[in-house]
Amino acid sequence: MRQVSIETGITKHAEGSCMIRIGDTHVLCTATIEERVPPFIKGSGQGWVTAEYGMLPRSTTSRMRREASAGKQGGRTVEIQRLIGRALRAGVDRNALGERQITVDCDVIQADGGTRCASITGGWVALRLAVNKLMKTGDVVTDPLVDPVAAVSCGIYAGQPVLDLDYPEDSEAGVDGNFIMTGSGRLIEVQMSAEGATYSRDEMNKLLDLAEKGVSELVAAQKAATGA
After folding, report:
1. Closest CA relative to residue 130, chosen from 140, 120, 121
2. What is the pLDDT of residues 175-204, one digit of tens each?
3. DSSP codes of every residue in 51-113
4. Is 115 flagged in the annotation as binding?
5. Distance CA 159, CA 203 (A)
6. Rounded CA separation 150/17 (Å)
7. 114 is in an annotated binding site
8. 182 is in an annotated binding site
9. Is 122 marked within a binding site?
């Protein structure tokens, strides 16, 4: 793993917030609690966790156009924020959350590979802090967060399995993948593909072993940041 730091309480108004830094990838994550849910679960007694994701114009080496100025989100953005939302929901007991929604916003300040993984990992911290407030006020009695959720990238770079790819490694890796897991080691989602080179079952297992190591380190950092 590159150096990991998670600083909490970054913003004044959000119910939960953190700045997660993994190497030179920096993402601001905030969680907002709303006493409403989407229409498709209204009246069910269940809560909902969703996410939005975006990259600032100079988070990359050259300026990106704001998606708002284009009038719509790009396909990559939509795919990533859906991924973040369903990843975080995998660690939530939605019945215990009650009929309310928590929106996790992930804004990439600086990108150097692994922004979706950093967003998921930091998003869980922001979510944890927001839920802590609900429990402190008594609005939620049973902790709805059943297991931490974290994510890490792995790939085969220069013929070797590598954990936590930075941008140069990611752009040249023959195989790369994103591994999303719970703190107890359960898999939520694996996005893995060959880009210029195929991979064997044995190589996939080696990357999974690396991912388990990386996620365990990230979960330890999450717990340290939230006092869990």
Report:
1. 140
2. 999 999 999 999 999 999 998 778 999 999
3. EEEEE-TTSSSSPPPPHHHHTS--HHHHHHHHHHHHHHHTTB-HHHH-S-EEEEEEEEEE-SS
4. yes
5. 10
6. 16
7. yes
8. no
9. no
